[in-house]
Amino acid sequence: MKEYILSNGKKVVIRKAEKKDAEELIKFINIISYESDFLTFEPGELKLTKELEESIIEECYNSDNKLFLIAEIEGEIVGNLSFKGSNRRRLKHAGEFGISVKKEYWNMGIASQLIKELIEWAKSSGIIKKINLKVREDNERAINLYRKFGFIEEGKISKEFYVNGKYYSTILMGLEI
């Protein structure tokens, strides 16, 4: 667990998710699903249950190449990051992450702190040698954030997103550890 002071002066706590967080995480996901078209899911599309969310969290705890972080302000979940490496031996060293922050907390440094924690964890893991991500081509703020941490563009998948009657490509980015 680490604490940081944000640009607004509030303290954010970043820690590993625990099974007891499952219900609050489901509420968080339901809220953010309405706040951005850059997510891979629409409002109401994910049918998460407490038991499913608990099993996802537990899987991360029982694995040396998976990580599930949450960011809290005064006990409220305001952000999360999940990283998943492969179970296959040949691919175990690499994985992909997803990140989200409640809209009212954008531009306060929460995503930066979550990514920083991911990179530190990966470096100390002795296993993770590559962190990958996908980002919608028009999500300039996210792309610039990832570049700030050294992620480079490695490819593009055309028409991977379909939002409000329009197709968008996905940029593949990676960081070697």
Automatic annotation (TrEMBL):
<protein>
    <submittedName>
        <fullName>GNAT family N-acetyltransferase</fullName>
    </submittedName>
</protein>
<dbReference type="InterPro" id="IPR000182">
    <property type="entry name" value="GNAT_dom"/>
</dbReference>
<feature type="domain" description="N-acetyltransferase">
    <location>
        <begin position="29"/>
        <end position="177"/>
    </location>
</feature>
<keyword id="KW-0808">Transferase</keyword>
<dbReference type="Pfam" id="PF00583">
    <property type="entry name" value="Acetyltransf_1"/>
</dbReference>
<dbReference type="GO" id="GO:0016747">
    <property type="term" value="F:acyltransferase activity, transferring groups other than amino-acyl groups"/>
</dbReference>
<dbReference type="InterPro" id="IPR016181">
    <property type="entry name" value="Acyl_CoA_acyltransferase"/>
</dbReference>
